[in-house]
Design brief:
593 residues; alpha/beta; six-stranded mixed beta sheet
Length: 593
């Protein structure tokens, strides 16, 4: 199926549009123009959401000067009515009046909803077209991904310059439906396809590669105009959408919830740093069958597996390393060239690696709090290194079972004050942001040379705070997070991971999250609400402060990691040399001897 031969206007527009169109919204024209002026410096292709303005018709003349000052800008005007998912409360006639006046102001294209196009008289639509402005006709399905071909046919009947088909990803599979649709239509260049929603991130990054003329992005984090929209800078710098091509290998983190996962920023930074032509996506799902289909169809070369899929995926793997098998969980999957899946557990190295940098583990006495997934990785990893492990868990039976399986001992809370350890590891969610449970340990229980809290958000958990107060050296959960991610990178690429850079970017992201949470809490206080906001209208986009200039990304396929040793021997591939100093040198003090 193909679109009509593009008109001159289409060809002209096609030559002006970039991969990413930044959606700009605000409640006053001054605010919109201010935001557009900032955005256009980085991304000259904009969508101006006129429907967010109270009186779009009155605001229009103000855009004339913007276009005179920004001749490189290419802009779509959207005045979507509320019935079709927009914010414009006016009638169809009022919408048409706004859009018809857009050409005279300097807009290059208007976005008209399919429902409006179908309701308009032919003559009225003709009047709009006679203004010479480009016409994009869009359809948004907020309930799912249904009959994309049928919607395409309905839109195409109007012979617009661009056809925009937007659905909602209710599952990962909906992305596949959209990607296959775009691939089928790949003999035309004027089709845009996107899946909205948290599960639709894949379509926003891989859609352009599959044939979408462009995709939409938010101006900054927090300014999204559609569910699941990604900030322009994230799309361009983290996901490197301009460089995603047929040779780009796809990786991802799968589980639920996944939206706030720091894995994409960490792993994409590592790929960029090491000039690996690869992209790493957030794959939100509870359903393993959906994930496996995606791995097969896209295909996906490697997955970081998180809750709730870590155990369930085990029976779908060709082979696993012996520790994953004993733990009963795998957090890393490698897809070999023959499509077979191999499993590893890098959580183990994420725990034993940082500890070994500070103390020998053979013969060490280590207390593990918890008996869930992370605790199992800790216990089996430590036992393999020859440590004497003591387990304390809320549910005593689970602790006893793990102790039996691993050759460890259990311990009661009351015995802690009279015991001493080389290390205490918290492998429970207690202390995590949003977790209201009381601290598990008091000062009298901290008879240890080192504390390792696997929780990494907040940066300073109550347990780390207590350790700091008592001058007990500690390791934060970021170190585990980065270490397990670095081992995944090495398994997938066969290259040493840029661990310090990964650590830096995760730390920065967590600090930003903490700052945003503090600001939000301050703003929600009643007295702050009554004060006029001193915040500038335009939020600076999130960017690591001292980001070293990235090496240019590999355009051609990165040299395929010669079949990683990890596949052949089922051992993680060659590791990077551990840095002399621990990665978290500021927060983690060397353990006392
Ligand atoms: P999990 O499988 O759900 O296990 C949770 C464990 O914590 C269970 O043993 C549970 O005890 C215990 N627990 C839960 N709430 C508790 C409470 N209020 N008081 C006492 N014990 C409680 O979770 P997981 O995958 O092991 O993860 C545990 C934590 O480790 C996560 O929350 C995360 O912060 C951290 N983690 C960090 C990394 C990293 O890279 N830094 C990686 C993985 C995990 P019961 O048996 O009684 O339910």
């Amino acid at each position: 199926m193909s679109l009509n031969v593009p008109s001159h206007a289409s060809q002209f527009l096609r030559s002006r549009v970039a991969n990413v169109c930044v959606a700009i919204a605000g409640t006053t024209s001054a605010e919109v123009i201010e935001k557009a002026t900032v955005a256009v410096k980085e991304t000259p292709f904009l969508e101006i959401r006129l429907d967010y303005l109270e009186k779009p018709l009155l605001a229009l003349p103000r855009f004339k000067q913007f276009f005179a000052d920004n001749t490189a800008a290419t802009a779509i005007a959207t005045c979507r009515r509320s019935a079709n998912g927009g914010k414009f409360a006016g009638s169809l006639a009022a919408e048409l009046e706004v859009l018809t006046k857009c050409a005279a102001v300097g807009f290059h294209m208007v976005d008209l909803e399919l429902e409006s196009a179908e309701a308009l008289k032919k003559a009225d639509l003709q009047k709009l077209r006679e203004t010479g402005i480009g016409l994009l006709i869009s359809h948004h399905d907020f309930n799912g991904t249904h009959d994309l071909d049928g919607i395409f046919t309905r839109i195409n009947a109007f012979h617009p310059d661009f056809v925009k088909v937007v659905s909602t990803a209710k599952s990962l599979i909906d992305n596949l439906t959209l990607i296959h649709f775009l691939e089928r239509m790949n003999d035309n260049s004027n089709l845009i396809g996107i899946c909205m929603g948290d599960a639709g991130i894949i379509s926003r990054v891989l859609g352009v590669r599959a044939g979408s003329a462009f995709t939409f992005a938010a101006a900054t984090v927090g300014e999204e105009t559609g569910p699941g929209q990604i900030a322009a800078r994230t799309l361009l710098e983290t996901y490197r959408i301009d460089q995603v091509d047929a040779a780009t290998k796809v990786y991802g983190v799968a589980g639920n919830p996944i939206r706030s996962s720091l894995s994409p920023i960490m792993m994409n930074t590592a790929f960029r740093r090491e000039t690996v032509n690869a992209v790493y996506l957030a794959l939100q799902t509870n359903k393993l069958s959906d994930l496996l289909k995606l791995v097969h169809d896209i295909p996906i070369q490697g997955i970081s597996v998180t809750m709730p899929l870590k155990q369930e995926i085990m029976s779908h793997l060709e082979r696993t390393d012996p520790l994953s098998a004993r733990i009963g969980a795998c957090n890393t999957v490698l897809r070999a060239q023959d499509g077979k899946l191999y499993g590893f557990n890098t959580d183990v190295a994420g725990i034993t690696g940082p500890l070994e940098k500070r103390m020998p583990l053979a013969g060490a006495r280590v207390l593990v709090l918890g008996a869930g997934g992370a605790a199992r990785a800790a216990v089996f990893g430590l036992r393999e290194k020859g440590a004497n492990v003591f387990i304390l868990n809320r549910t005593a039976e689970t602790a006893q079972k793990l102790a039996r399986q691993s050759g460890s001992k259990t311990i009661r809370k009351e015995a802690l004050a009279k015991s001493s350890f080389d290390a205490i590891i918290n492998a429970t969610p207690v202390g995590m942001a949003g977790n209201k449970a009381a601290p598990l340990l008091e000062a009298k229980d901290l008879n240890t040379k080192l504390v390792f809290d696997l929780v990494y958000n907040p940066l300073e958990t109550p347990l780390i705070h207590l350790a700091r107060q008592l001058s007990v050296p500690f390791i934060t959960g970021i170190e585990m997070f980065v270490h397990q991610g670095a081992r995944q990178f090495e398994i997938w690429t066969g290259k040493p991971a840029p661990e310090e850079e990964m650590f830096r970017v995760v730390l920065h992201a967590l600090r930003q999250q903490a700052e945003a949470a503090t600001a939000e809490a301050a703003e929600s206080k009643p007295e702050a609400k009554s004060r006029p906001s001193a915040k500038p209208v335009v939020k600076p986009a999130a960017k690591p402060k001292a980001a070293p200039k990235p090496k240019p990304a590999a355009k051609s396929p990165a040299k395929p990691a010669a079949k990683p040793k990890s596949v052949a021997k089922l051992k993680p591939a060659a590791r990077s040399k551990p840095s002399a100093k621990p990665a978290g040198k500021k927060s983690a003090v060397k353990a006392k001897k």
